[in-house]
């Protein structure tokens, strides 16, 4: 089972809303919708790991909170600057969730 981080993105939310509508209209079963979401999770994790080669650096004015649980790091930062080769982007408050892409993700009993 892959990490489910990307279900909370615009693309993931839209997919879930569409699947819910298809279930309501009786066009697909809840079991099929779950299989689609699991495939989405696996594909997003694989695609980002294999196809995205961009690197960026960031600097935070303050590390507000950090936590490590179930092989997942969560950082809450403020006054953050992200830089790549040619661009600078600033964020007032940023949450970073980082998972070990090589480790097996935690299993859930949902």
UniProtKB/TrEMBL annotation:
<keyword id="KW-0539">Nucleus</keyword>
<dbReference type="InterPro" id="IPR003194">
    <property type="entry name" value="TFIIA_gsu"/>
</dbReference>
<dbReference type="InterPro" id="IPR015872">
    <property type="entry name" value="TFIIA_gsu_N"/>
</dbReference>
<dbReference type="InterPro" id="IPR015871">
    <property type="entry name" value="TFIIA_gsu_C"/>
</dbReference>
<dbReference type="InterPro" id="IPR009083">
    <property type="entry name" value="TFIIA_a-hlx"/>
</dbReference>
<dbReference type="Pfam" id="PF02751">
    <property type="entry name" value="TFIIA_gamma_C"/>
</dbReference>
<dbReference type="GO" id="GO:0005672">
    <property type="term" value="C:transcription factor TFIIA complex"/>
</dbReference>
<keyword id="KW-0804">Transcription</keyword>
<dbReference type="Pfam" id="PF02268">
    <property type="entry name" value="TFIIA_gamma_N"/>
</dbReference>
<keyword id="KW-0805">Transcription regulation</keyword>
<dbReference type="InterPro" id="IPR009088">
    <property type="entry name" value="TFIIA_b-brl"/>
</dbReference>
<comment type="function">
    <text>TFIIA is a component of the transcription machinery of RNA polymerase II and plays an important role in transcriptional activation.</text>
</comment>
<feature type="domain" description="Transcription initiation factor IIA gamma subunit N-terminal">
    <location>
        <begin position="3"/>
        <end position="48"/>
    </location>
</feature>
<protein>
    <recommendedName>
        <fullName>Transcription initiation factor IIA subunit 2</fullName>
    </recommendedName>
</protein>
<comment type="similarity">
    <text>Belongs to the TFIIA subunit 2 family.</text>
</comment>
<feature type="domain" description="Transcription initiation factor IIA gamma subunit C-terminal">
    <location>
        <begin position="61"/>
        <end position="101"/>
    </location>
</feature>
<dbReference type="GO" id="GO:0006367">
    <property type="term" value="P:transcription initiation at RNA polymerase II promoter"/>
</dbReference>
């Amino acid at each position: 089972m892959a990490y489910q981080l990307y279900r909370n993105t615009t693309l993931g939310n839209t997919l879930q809303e569409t699947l819910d509508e298809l279930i309501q209209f009786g066009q697909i079963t809840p079991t099929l919708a779950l299989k689609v979401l699991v495939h989405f999770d696996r594909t997003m994790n694989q695609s980002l790991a294999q196809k995205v080669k961009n690197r960026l650096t960031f600097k935070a004015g303050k590390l507000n909170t950090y936590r490590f649980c179930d092989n997942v790091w969560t950082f809450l930062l403020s006054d953050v600057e992200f830089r790549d080769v040619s661009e600078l982007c600033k964020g007032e408050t940023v949450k970073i969730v980082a998972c070990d892409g090589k480790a097996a993700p935690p299993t859930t009993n949902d």
